[in-house]
Amino acid sequence: MFPNLFSLSRFQDANIQEMLDDNAGNKWNFGFCRNLREVEIEDIIHLLKLIATFNIVEGQDERVWQNGIKQFSVAECYKSLEEDGLLVFPYKSVWNPKIPQKVILFVWCLCYNAAPTMDSVRNTYNVNGCLLCKKSAESNQHLFLHCDTTREIWFYFLSHYNLQWVFQGSVRDTLWEWRRKKGGNVSLKTKIWDIIPFAIWWVVCLERNTRTFNGRSNSVDNLKDGLNL
Ligand SMILES: [Zn+2]
């Protein structure tokens, strides 16, 4: 769930007991190999909230396979991924007749990391920098998922649903998670839920283009108001 944090940990093969620091009163020790950046700190806050209710009991750690009635096997794992739809393109989410076709095609491009962000423009005249947050290089993942400005818009909507959200590494995975969340939560079964990611990505794209080509910018509050969902 937190691939970026996992990649920073020195304890990638550790069990639960080894992640608890005896000397610090059994507090979590994730063994990060460097200080966390701002975006990563948000992720660690989400992680700590998720595991806050975790009950530590005496005994040996063991792995538990919770999907299906059979024991873990590669075949069962593959079946589980397939049933959750992680192995195929999220066509049900993308091809939504209530969404304008140009927005659908744009999100379809995002699913393949194909939006023309600065990281894909290779010349020596442009310095790659995100014009929304001005803190990081611009890429598909950054601009539409991890940018501070974009996240502010995401959290504005998520707060209405009282949801904690862990951002996936790609637009495609985010669409799957968005749909899966709806399946398990009655309050999310609204028409607007399916449209929110598309509206956010579209407004972020328009704002990015306005800043890049017209030199003008809107405040985040204006962007939220402009969504009109
Ligand atoms: Zn940014």
Task: Explain briefly what this protein structure is.
This protein is an all-alpha fold and 229 residues long.
Model description:
This protein has 229 residues and is mainly alpha-helical. It contains 10 helices and 2 strands, in the order αββααααααααα. The protein has helices at residues 3-8, 38-50, 74-83, 91-94, 101-111, 140-146, 148-160, 171-183, 191-214, 220-227; strands at residues 20-21, 27-28. A hairpin with a 5-residue loop joins strand 1 (20-21) and strand 2. Helix 5 (101-111) crosses helix 9 (191-214) and helix 7 (148-160) runs antiparallel to helix 9. The protein is globular and about 60 Å long. The model has no long low-confidence stretch (mean pLDDT 82). The structure holds zinc ion (ZN).
